[in-house]
Structures are given as structure tokens and as C-alpha cells.
Amino acid sequence: EVQLVESGGGLVQPGGSLRLSCVASGFTFDDYAMSWVRQAPGKGLEWVSGIMWNGHTTYYAPSMKGRFTISKDGGFKNTLYLQMNNLQPEDTAVYYCNANILSRHFWGQGIQVTVSS
Hints:
Layout lengths: L2 E5 L2 E3 L5 E8 L8 E6 L5 E7 L6 E3 L7 E6 L5 E6 L8 E9 L2 E4 L3 E5 L2
Parallel strand pairs: 2-11
Antiparallel strand pairs: 1-3, 3-8, 4-5, 4-9, 5-6, 7-8, 9-10, 9-11
């Protein structure tokens, strides 16, 4: 059974940083692309960033590029990360970890990130 468990969210002031983690299990972590998606209050899902199976190719939404860094750590950790710097109030959202496995998408439960002074 595929499981994705996010952690690392919370309340941060504008300009601050957070690192989200997503621990994966139930599939061969090193074989599949993964991504982060977020949903702001009252809005739809917004793709944030993606990383290819090998961890070497990454993609970012324009508003996140230069502020967010996606990475993955396979082996025993099987963890996807999202380092978020210079956070702004508009980054407030629930952040979801997503795995694309043979054209099926699996989701974590989501983690709240709130940026406020």
C-alpha cells in the first residue's frame, strides 16, 4: 500500500523559511517522479514543484522558482523534501506530496503552512 506522510508545516512570519518532508512507503521510491501541490484557502489545487525519478531534474512553478527547492533522498530515508525560503502570505496553503506511479497519482494527507505576522 502506497503511503505518503507529510510533516514540517506550521506558522512562520513573512520572509521566514520552512522545510517540508514527505516520507514514502509501499513503492520503490527511487523509480518514480514526485511533486508538491498546494491548495490555498478558497482556491483550487496549484502545482508547486516536481522532481524526476533520478532526483537530478527538477521543475518549479514560476512564482516559486528561486525561493523553493525540491529534493529527494532515497535508500533508507525514502523522503521527499521542499525547502521554502522567503515565504510570503500568499504561500499560505495546505501542501500535498504527490507520487506519480504508472500514471496513477497518490497523495499524502496534506500539511498546513501559514505565513503571517
